[in-house]
Amino acid sequence: MSESITFIDPNGVDTISYSSLKSRAGSYSIYFVKRTDATVDDYLEHYLYINPLGYQFDNSGNNFDKIIFPNGAYSSINRKNIAGAVTQSDDGTRIYNSCRDCKKLPNGHYGSWYDPENFKKFTKAWVFPSNFEVVKYTSNRKGEWKLRYNTLTYYGSNVNDLIFEIYFRSKSIETMSDLRRDLTDDNIEIAEGDDGVRVSFSENVLFSSGSAELNESGQKVLNKLAELVKDKDHSVVVEGHTDDIPIQGSLKDVYDTNWELSAARSLAVVRYLASVGISENRLESRAFAEHRPRADNSTAEGRARGFQPVLRDSHRGEIAHNSERTGCG
Predict the structure, then answer these.
(1) Longest distance between any two alpha carbons in the chain, whole Å
(2) Where are the alpha helices (DSSP H) in the chain?
(3) Co-location of 194 and 97 in the same domain
(4) What burial class does residue 108 get, using C-beta atoms within 10 Å of its C-beta: 0-12 exposed, 13-18 middle, 19+ buried?
(5) Up-side HSE of residue 83: CA atoms within 13 Å toward CB?
(6) Could you give the CA distance from residue 97 to residue 266 in angstroms, rounded to a whole number?
(7) Contact indicator for 273, 236 with CB cutoff of 8 Å
(8) What CATH number should be reported for the domain holding residue 57?
């Protein structure tokens, strides 16, 4: 009987998996495709936990090295990046294939396999973060699928050599599409990151230099933005960022450091969004000054980019605007 649970990171490619196997065999082996001069530690580099500890390493084979457990049961936790197994379609849907580039092994097996017989029971679950939704799923072997909330599980009986394909997509795709349709100015850049959809604005779109008062063009942009997101259930997190040039001259009378300037601009955006219909319980203000720069602060171009406002539509129910920075198993 094999059971595994894979937890997928919000970036969609980093995973942590718990796996266990129980059998009536006198011993059990985990096989690794042979690598020249590889040690047991090389093969276990991404394993966080193994039980039992009394395993043996055998590298005498021609095609495989293996870890041998002294009984027919084991459990493990390992981390893995599945980027090589994930592709993305034109509409933003991600397609995970558990055996995308794998080939039949010299022993005739492929995918998730057991030897010398089939898995009597095989259960595999994928736990997706809240920023993704599962679209569809399939396997090359018959089995029962269950999707409960954000967890997808396959249950198989008397199966072997399994391959899984899962289609999933960001919940922010619709928001990103709307933003790209309505915010078409060349000074606005829209992209999706690990933390959601980011909408970045060129320097001085929202504020004049050294000012925390929204200018007319900034108000127009935020009016459009508010219309697009006010009926959604996202939070709106406004982040203030600056370049690394210290406050100088008469500005010192208003803002002692970049902390005060970034905070003032962040609050200005929060207050304006509240005034045009965004519910205040969805709003949050953050300030980072120069400490999380979007670009290289050593160049004038980088400093200019570091002073850009950004809206981030967080997958975890957040939308954030950055008043200084653009910021399976």
Answers:
(1) 80
(2) 40-43, 173-182, 216-229, 258-275, 300-306
(3) no
(4) exposed
(5) 4
(6) 42
(7) yes
(8) 2.60.40
Q: What is the pLDDT of residues 141-181, one digit of tens each?
A: 999 999 999 999 999 999 999 999 999 998 877 777 887 88
Range of the structural domain that residue 164 is part of:
2-170
In this prediction, what percent of the chain has a pLDDT beyond 70?
87
C-alpha span between 53 and 2 (Å, rounded): 19
201 in Cβ contact with 309 (< 8 Å)? yes
Q: Residue 140: is it exposed, middle or buried by C-beta count within 10 angstroms (0-12/13-18/19+)?
A: middle
* 33 & 182 share domain: no
Q: Which two tokens stand for residue 263?
A: 């905070």
Which tens digits make up the pLDDT trace of 65-93? 989 888 888 899 999 999 999 999 988 89
State pLDDT tens for residues 238-267: 888 777 788 888 888 888 898 998 899 889
In a shared domain, residues 292 and 310: yes
Q: Is the pTM of this model over 0.90?
A: no
Over residues 288-297, mean pLDDT:
73
Contact indicator for 96, 168 with CB cutoff of 8 Å:
yes
